[in-house]
């Protein structure tokens, strides 16, 4: 007899601690789309900032992530039930559940409320945005100095940009192209990165791609793998091409399917070598800078499905699989 299969308990992936008691109050406290709260430069003006507690902001983000994951898995079940069984009752049941999840997302304020909650997470009161870490690393690597000396600019793609001006203070040497699924500003291109056309010419490719707290937003392991592989294709084939990745630390430090070291193996196969990292044990967020390298075929098979690397009662199910 084979080993007894055990149900793996799902915990939400978020940079924040889940708090199920305040979900409904989050929906009431967050405003819907309010262009007046965004300044000419795209910053959320403090005077107009919604007054929400840290707890409510965190709760909204966590709850939204959970709903996104439910939505993604219900959509998958719906598609496979329709394709394989054509069982009308089952299809109806999944559709009803999906409608209910989507109603809950709308009640929470949808992507807009999630973005406002995340913007508050970026604010100075909460420790600032991640761009400072990337700028410091590019400075330490001598890339800033090189650009300034050559009067040249790094071509950067910022995936999941809540504000258009995170790199405004570096405009002399960084030419940033911010995109987001739901743009909060005319200077942010509204685009799904997974649908972005690949660069037709080398000069359309990027020197740096920033992917800060976005990979954990992508709800399926296969789409996460696709995102990392597409980032590799959007980068120039030059030694100084980088991916700046920011993730809630538990995604790698407390997952059943990944660890900090196995993630490094996966990235090597996709074609990334670790250049810099910043995180502390028990911390909420980790920062990694990956240099583009040649991808590897050997060992790829291990990453086409999820494999448990460790298990425990309070672990999460964050995973990445390759397309
Ligand atoms: C938590 S926010 C992160 C914002 C910011 N980068 C930061 O570090 O605080 C995640 C953002 O990623 C965006 N996003 C998620 N998937 C995306 C995709 N496939 N293409 C473009 N943007 C995406 C979401 O719309 C959301 O605004």
Automatic annotation (TrEMBL):
GO cellular component: nucleolus
Bias kind Low complexity: ranges: 24-36
Subcellular location: Nucleus, Nucleolus
Documented EC number(s): 2.1.1.-
Pfam families: Bmt2 (PF11968)
Biased composition (Basic residues): 1-10
UniProt superkingdom: Eukaryota
Top-level class of the enzyme under EC nomenclature: transferase
Residues at which S-adenosyl-L-methionine binds: 160, 180
Region (Disordered), start-end ranges: 1-51
Polar residues bias: start-end ranges: 14-23
Any one GO MF annotation of this record: rRNA (adenine) methyltransferase activity
Keyword Disulfide bond included in the entry's annotation: no
This protein's UniProt keywords: Methyltransferase, Nucleus, S-adenosyl-L-methionine, Transferase
InterPro entries: Bmt2/SAMTOR, SAM-dependent_MTases_sf
Family: Belongs to the BMT2 family.
Chain's role: S-adenosyl-L-methionine-dependent methyltransferase that specifically methylates the N(1) position of an adenine present in helix 65 in 25S rRNA.
Protein name: 25S rRNA adenine-N(1) methyltransferase
Organism from which the protein derives: Kwoniella bestiolae CBS 10118
Biological classification of the source: Eukaryota, Fungi, Dikarya, Basidiomycota, Agaricomycotina
């Amino acid at each position: 007899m084979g080993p007894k299969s055990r149900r793996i308990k799902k915990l939400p992936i978020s940079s924040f601690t889940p708090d199920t008691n305040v979900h409904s109050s989050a929906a009431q406290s967050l405003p819907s789309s309010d262009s007046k709260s965004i300044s000419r430069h795209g910053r959320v003006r403090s005077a107009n900032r919604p007054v929400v507690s840290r707890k409510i902001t965190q709760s909204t983000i966590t709850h939204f992530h959970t709903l996104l994951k439910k939505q993604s898995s219900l959509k998958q079940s719906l598609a496979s039930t329709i394709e394989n069984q054509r069982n009308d009752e089952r299809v109806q049941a999944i559709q009803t559940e999906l409608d209910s999840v989507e109603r809950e997302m709308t009640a929470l304020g949808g992507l807009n409320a999630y973005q406002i909650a995340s913007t508050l997470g970026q604010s100075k009161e909460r420790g600032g945005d991640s761009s400072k870490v990337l700028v410091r690393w590019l400075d330490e690597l001598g890339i800033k100095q090189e650009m300034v000396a050559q009067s040249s600019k790094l071509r950067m793609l910022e995936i999941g940009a809540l504000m258009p001006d995170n790199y405004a203070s570096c405009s002399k040497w960084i030419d940033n192209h911010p995109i987001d699924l739901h743009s909060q500003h005319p200077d942010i291109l509204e685009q799904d990165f997974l649908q972005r056309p690949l660069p037709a010419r080398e000069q359309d490719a990027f020197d740096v791609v920033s992917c800060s707290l976005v990979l954990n937003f992508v709800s399926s392991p296969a789409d996460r793998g696709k995102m990392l592989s597409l980032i590799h294709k959007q980068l120039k084939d030059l030694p100084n091409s980088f991916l700046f990745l920011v993730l809630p630390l538990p995604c790698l430090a407390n997952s059943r399917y990944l660890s900090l070291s196995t993630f490094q193996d996966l990235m090597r196969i996709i074609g990334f070598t670790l250049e810099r990292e910043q995180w502390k044990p028990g911390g909420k967020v980790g920062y990694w800078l990956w240099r583009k390298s040649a991808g590897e075929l050997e060992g790829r098979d291990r990453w086409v499905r999820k494999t448990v690397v460790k298990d425990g009662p309070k672990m999460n199910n964050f995973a990445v699989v390759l397309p």
